[in-house]
Amino acid sequence: MKKFLFFFLSLFLCYSAIAQQLYRETMKYNQFIQYLNNYYVDSVDIAGLVEEAIKNHLSQLDPHSTYITKEDVQKMNEPLQGNFEGVGISFNILNDTLFVISAIPGGPSEKVGIMAGDRIVKVEEENIAGVGLTNEKVYDLLRGPKGTMVSVSVQRRHVKELLVFTIERDKIPIYSLDAAYMANETTAYIKLNRFARTTLDEFLEEGAKLKKQGAKDLILDLTGNAGGYLDMAISLSDEFLDDEKLIVYTEGLKSPRQEFPASKKGLFEEGRLIILIDEGSASASEIVSGAVQDWDRGVIIGRRSFGKGLVQRQMEMLDGSMIRLTTARYYTPSGRLIQKPYSSDRDAYRHEIANRFEHGEVWHSDSVSFSDSLQYKTLLNGRTVFGGGGIMPDIFVPIDTMGYSNYYRDLVRTGILNQFVLSYVDKKRNKILKQCPSVEFYCNGYQITDELFAELTGYAETKDLPFNESEFAISKERIATLLKAYIARDLWTSGEFYKVVNESNVTYQRALEVLQNWHDYADKIVY
Asked: Domain 84-173 is classified in which CATH homologous superfamily?
């Protein structure tokens, strides 16, 4: 009993000393601010000073603890919350004019009759064409609280007078699922761009449709998916794992270990599973791929993932700003730490992906080195996997640079290719749709002609990109694929874009090859 009381007293005194030190340092900083405000020779921006101090403190911790201003909080949350309030159009700005790429199905703009190809030239009688239009200006004009009204004037091809529409703003969904279609007779393909509040609902809705079309197996594309909500990653993993298998656990100095197991029957618990990842796959994407790999549930294909395994908690400040503070680390079921190493040098951390290119890792798997001390075993078949940052795929696929040239790079980087397609589809929409009455007909039958190439290169020259015959020849096939994909996107949706580009996507094609030769991998996984 005496030992217990002594231990309790020691613990209390230790905690009390820490609390007293925290109080002293807090009062010291408050005193400093008061002195500045009361005695400094010039006026002082106290709010700005405090913000800079907070940013500086956080910059000394880890790469993912950050400060977010009040103005940026809403912008940051919108993609993860899965909706915003506005008129419901997908748009682009071409020649200083707002082009409607598509009206979101069921959204306010579609309901009043706004169509793809329309040009919005006035908002509330204010001319917005040819005045240096920016995306931010469009957001300011068209977004607003649900139930509020906005009047727009539209110029439509083959219609002489302006069309005026009054739109009642509403909640507009932001989709985290880019594509969902049948890759072959028995295999579904689903691509996710983030883990938002709506991700699981989107996955289940599209997955159920694909099941009805005969899907037994799944290719889940998480390339470029930078993550999002932890609970969405857990819920998605639960669609693949059974019997209360551990999905992930978190742990930190002041955050006791917390385990997250599978808890229900999943949509794709049975059947063959392939997950695609690359250096842009982070956080929630790594939780899903790490859990699937550790339980030998599927085959991971691609390149080593980003290596973001720090858990952030968002904490609101008095003025509506927010700090995102790291509180724990993610670990895969086998105990692997997902987070890659970091130091106080944030620039070095940000350039780590660029270093992978410089060191050849994206082209050669043997350029990736792991310490023997970071070896782990998968939980069913005992395969060797590695910790120390990121998820190393079971099958490495080097980055595809075939057909890449400076001319191709500049066509894409400057937006010339995208702008050309917007203009081309605006003029040829009805003709192409008449020629290709279905997406399948388009994917299988639509060809990029030499005449279209000539139009593109001519358009590029008007945008100060001179034609380079030798580099164009190198990239011709790659340009043709992207042209066809952009046209499909502007005629239909992003899903059709991926249908086209995946025909030449080496990682996707390797996944199909693995499915065709599944017996070569049967001893590695359980399904």
From this structure: PDZ domain (2.30.42.10)
